[in-house]
Specification:
By secondary structure, the chain is of the alpha/beta class. It has a single domain, classed as Rossmann fold (3-Layer(aba) Sandwich), CATH 3.40.50. Helices cover about 40% and strands about 15% of the residues. An eight-stranded mixed β-sheet has the order 1-2-4-3-5-6-7-8, sandwiched between helices. α8 links the parallel β7 and β8. The protein is globular, with a radius of gyration of 17 Å. The protein starts with 7 loop residues before the first strand and ends with a helix.
């Protein structure tokens, strides 16, 4: 089943955010990571809809079909957009699913507005600043320079799919490339890459909502993905479940939907029963 819902727009003070909604039931808001677009949830969203949830997938500021006119592109800005979307859809408490930087936004939302959040799911979460080598910094600097930026980012994104390659990855990359080539999008994404997660890390202890932390066992963004999962689980304040997904990299929801879909649906169903 594809992700065919039509694009809707949410007006924010400095621009519009693109999102789509499908299904009926309790609200789940899905937030992609840096560089990515909302079709990152093309496999998970239909499974959630089928399980009886109303699913909204959104594009980050400057990404996908969202405007590139904002002055801030950090975790706090993304969190404020998630809260605005929940308010606009007028359905709380909601579940927030966040991949990569989207997990940082989910953390802030759950910590700051606990009454609005029923549970959160973190996929390949970036909730602290990783140690980077000079070589990685040099590569990032090179990658963010035009004219080779868009192909370099696409190649880097492909490499983060370590393990099982989604059969529809080519189509998804095409959407990412098209989004990056929009006027103003490149500058917005470059600014997003400068995001620090330092403010997110201490907020983990304030997350009391049930949380599922999912990490691909081969996620290239982490030196030791299993250790990162344990760090996050120990830091979170509320009940936490963890899952390390075999043969998956940074996008377990797209790479291993056979394992991730039932895991997420089962977790949310259980969280709702205990609410």
């Amino acid at each position: 089943m594809g992700h065919s819902s039509k694009t809707l727009f949410l007006d924010r003070p400095e621009g519009r955010l693109a999102y789509d909604v499908s299904g009926d039931g309790p609200l789940v808001v899905c937030v992609p990571g840096m560089v990515d677009v909302r079709s990152s949830y093309r496999h998970l969203a239909p499974a959630l809809v089928e399980a009886g949830y109303r699913v909204a997938t959104m594009d980050l500021r400057g990404h996908g079909e969202s405007d590139t006119t904002f002055s801030a592109y950090d975790d706090q800005a993304a969190a404020s957009d998630v809260l605005a979307l929940i308010g606009h859809l007028d359905q709380s408490p909601a579940v927030v699913v966040g991949n990569s930087m989207g997990a940082a936004a989910a953390t802030l939302v759950a910590a700051d507005e606990p009454g609005l959040i029923e549970a959160i799911v973190m996929l390949g979460p970036f909730v602290r600043n990783p140690p980077t080598t000079w070589f990685q910094r040099a590569m990032m600097w090179l990658m963010l320079r035009r004219p080779w930026g868009v192909p370099a980012v696409a190649a880097f994104y492909r490499s983060l799919n370590a393990g099982v390659t989604p059969p529809d990855l080519g189509d998804h990359l095409q959407r990412i490339r098209a989004a990056l080539r929009r006027p103003g999008a490149w500058a917005a994404v470059v600014r997003t890459t400068k995001t620090s997660h330092a403010q997110v890390t201490p907020r983990l202890a304030h997350v009391m909502a049930p949380t599922l932390v999912v990490m691909g066992e081969r996620d290239p963004d982490f030196a030791d993905p299993a250790a990162e999962v344990r760090f996050i689980a120990d830091a979170l304040g509320g009940p936490t479940e963890i899952d390390v997904v075999p043969d998956a990299g940074h996008y377990p929801q797209a790479q291993r939907p056979d394992l991730v879909n039932p895991r997420v649906v089962g977790f949310l169903d259980q969280a709702r029963r205990h609410a």
